[in-house]
Design goal:
It is a single chain. This protein has 119 residues and is mainly alpha-helical. Helices cover 56% and strands 3% of the residues. It has 4 helices and 2 strands.
């Protein structure tokens, strides 16, 4: 069993939508618990995948000016929706693995999800 380092804990809280929330200290203390090495490796892999998705979203934004390449019609809207869906699913998995509810997802367009937890 291993604990998350301070940078990993901060990264998890920011990714799950807790920049300055009042519940942040409760969640920080929860993240100091022991996790299996496999869980920590998966959390790191999730962040690697999210970085790739963010890069692809940035690329799609800059490349979306092209509507067609030769005979191929490009569907940038569907591509972006797919990437956002993948990003949101990864954040949900991160929340489950870390044991902290997903407060806000930057990949859910126009939706904010606030959770309430009574302690």
């Amino acid at each position: 069993m291993t604990t998350l380092d301070e940078e990993q804990r901060e990264q998890i809280l920011l990714a799950l939508g807790y920049p300055d929330d009042l519940n942040r200290p409760n969640y920080l203390s929860r993240l100091t618990l022991d996790y299996t090495d496999l869980t920590i490796e998966r959390i790191d892999a999730i962040f690697d995948e999210l970085k790739v998705i963010d890069g692809q979203l940035t690329e799609a934004r800059s490349s979306s000016m092209a509507a067609a390449t030769g005979r191929t019609q490009l569907q940038w809207g569907q591509h972006v929706m797919h990437l956002r869906g993948d990003g949101h699913n990864l954040l949900r998995e991160l929340a489950i693995r870390a044991g902290i509810p997903l407060h806000w997802s930057k990949y859910s367009q126009g939706q904010t999800r606030h959770t309430v937890q009574y302690q």
